[in-house]
């Protein structure tokens, strides 16, 4: 929020935005723990529980941004090891995202601010992945906050906005590797807007303000240094290792703090470059057009009103007599750059990539939504029935499309027809495994493992998956590994029938790939088999339970 408003009583616009955030919270908490965990969520939960047990944490790019774990660990510690608790911090952030619209009040009209917040609250992609234990909504959300603070700085709303900008940038980087991409695309948008203002004759008045901005920078060394300290402090806190019960370097371990700071500032960069650039998966590159096509398909399915409104506002704004509004141009350029670079730089094509385009487009779409409502209200005041009918029809169409996609995709059962779900989302039937595992395992103790993974594709040496990097075969144990870990059960592996036969005792639960059923079943007399799909299609497993 702009500092000049601090200390005042909340006005109607602020109250409306807060009400939208409250509604966003409700729709994100409903059924939050119903859907079984996606593989990515399961690994976050598993490593968070391991970190809670040992106190050890070290940034690994393959595991995602460290902020994801800094949020999930306290939630699991406070509310228990449940799917709901794991997703809760991400749902809270997704619900709070509409509040970012208040940072733009210096540039937007009151109804435009509310429209902006409404899009952030209700868009189906943001709803689905705003209740998902990944860092994408965090990364692009903090990038949006950074954009808002940057505009406040440009508008002279107070140098303390520089601290908010620095904090938002640090948190965006700590949320996900794609946070750097989101910030980079925002930077590209800023350069394009500046170039437009500097070169086009129609934009010369804006260019003339460059001298004003330069004057503001004089004497700003101290606030800039403080902002840099804010960035460094948050960055170190997020990326520094925690030694826990090991004898390694840790931020909270006396005598190793400087080593932990060094690891945060320099080791994190080396690891990121090594994993995401030098040894990039898959094999360093992928085809671009299929990834772009998938992203476009996601936007058409779940963000078509946002795309159409955003494009319309951009064109009208650009070619009207008043000239383009910098914040609108920057938002659309940011979305366009994301559409180009996100599918290029991501390693996996997935529906969650849509959030990197939808969030910046929400600003012009919110302006368009406000304009539609304003147009309809004006028609109603003048008793222009055709215009009123047209406005109602358009608004109802936008609401109906958004509501239909949101309800069917966010709350419907997971199956191969769920367009917003990624392949690694288990089908709804997998809930039976989650709900029955504790009863199948029985009392957990230290006498031996309660769960055994069978097969070379699932074999992982004991202790090899405690923290990343892990063997590739551990991925075949997801999302079961999370559900086994959260009930306190121990697990082991056997790669061959001989290894299974020579065990002195077989655990009460044995999990194997479905194509190994004929091999394993004869070795497990008295066990009942249950088969589940751990993805939306394919990758079936068979779970043998001692009768």
Automatic annotation (TrEMBL):
Transferase is among the record's keywords: no
TM regions (residue ranges): 56-72, 84-107, 113-130, 137-157, 163-194, 215-238, 295-316, 328-346, 352-373, 385-406
Identification of the protein by name: TIGR03663 family protein
Keyword Transmembrane: yes
Keyword entries, A-Z: Membrane, Transmembrane, Transmembrane helix
Organism: Haloferax marisrubri
Source organism, top-level taxon: Archaea
């Amino acid at each position: 929020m702009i500092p000049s408003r601090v200390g005042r009583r909340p006005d109607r616009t602020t109250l409306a935005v807060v009400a939208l955030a409250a509604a966003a919270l409700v729709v994100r908490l409903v059924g939050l723990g119903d859907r079984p965990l996606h593989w990515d969520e399961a690994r976050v939960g598993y490593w968070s529980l391991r970190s809670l047990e040992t106190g050890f944490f070290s940034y690994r790019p393959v595991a995602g941004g460290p902020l994801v774990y800094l949020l999930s660990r306290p939630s699991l510690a406070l509310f228990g090891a449940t799917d709901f608790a794991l997703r809760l911090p991400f749902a809270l952030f997704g619900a709070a995202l509409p509040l970012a619209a208040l940072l733009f009040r210096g540039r937007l009209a009151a109804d435009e601010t509310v429209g902006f917040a409404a899009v952030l609250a209700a868009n189906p992609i943001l709803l689905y992945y705003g209740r998902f234990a990944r860092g994408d909504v965090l990364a692009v959300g903090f990038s949006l906050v950074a954009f808002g603070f940057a505009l406040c700085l440009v508008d002279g709303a107070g140098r303390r906005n520089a601290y908010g900008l620095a904090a938002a940038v640090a948190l965006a980087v700590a949320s996900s590797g794609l946070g750097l991409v989101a910030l980079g695309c925002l930077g590209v948008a800023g350069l394009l807007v500046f170039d437009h203002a500097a070169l086009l004759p129609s934009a010369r008045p804006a260019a003339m303000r460059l001298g004003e901005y330069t004057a503001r920078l004089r004497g700003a060394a101290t606030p800039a240094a403080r902002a840099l300290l804010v960035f460094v402090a948050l960055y170190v806190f997020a990326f520094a290792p925690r030694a826990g019960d090991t004898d390694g370097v840790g931020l909270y371990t006396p005598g190793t703090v400087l080593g932990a700071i060094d690891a945060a500032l320099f080791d994190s960069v080396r690891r990121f470059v090594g994993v995401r650039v030098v040894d990039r998966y898959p094999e360093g590159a992928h085809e671009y057009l299929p990834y772009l096509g998938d992203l476009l398909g996601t936007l058409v399915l779940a963000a078509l009103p946002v795309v159409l409104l955003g494009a319309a506002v951009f064109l009208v704004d650009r070619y009207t007599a008043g000239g383009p509004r910098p914040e609108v141009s920057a938002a659309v350029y940011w979305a366009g750059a994301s559409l180009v670079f996100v599918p290029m730089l991501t390693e996996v094509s997935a529906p969650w990539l849509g959030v990197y385009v939808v969030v910046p487009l929400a600003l012009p779409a919110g302006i368009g939504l406000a304009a539609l409502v304003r147009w309809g209200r004006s028609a109603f005041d003048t008793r222009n029935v055709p215009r009123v009918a047209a406005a109602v029809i358009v608004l109802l169409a936008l609401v109906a499309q958004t509501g239909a996609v949101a309800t069917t995709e966010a709350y419907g059962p997971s199956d191969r027809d769920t367009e917003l779900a990624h392949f690694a989302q288990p089908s709804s039937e997998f809930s039976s495994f989650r709900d029955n595992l504790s009863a199948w395992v029985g009392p957990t103790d230290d006498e031996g493992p309660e769960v055994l993974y069978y097969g070379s594709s699932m074999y992982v040496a004991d202790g090899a998956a405690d923290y990343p990097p892990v063997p590739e075969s551990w991925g075949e144990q997801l999302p079961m590994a999370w559900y086994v870990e959260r009930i306190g059960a121990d697990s082991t592996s056997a790669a061959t029938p001989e290894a299974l036969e020579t065990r002195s005792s077989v655990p009460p639960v044995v999990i194997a790939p479905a194509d190994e059923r004929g091999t394993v079943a004869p070795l497990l007399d008295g066990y009942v088999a249950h088969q589940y799909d751990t993805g939306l299609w394919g990758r079936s497993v068979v779970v043998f339970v001692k009768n």
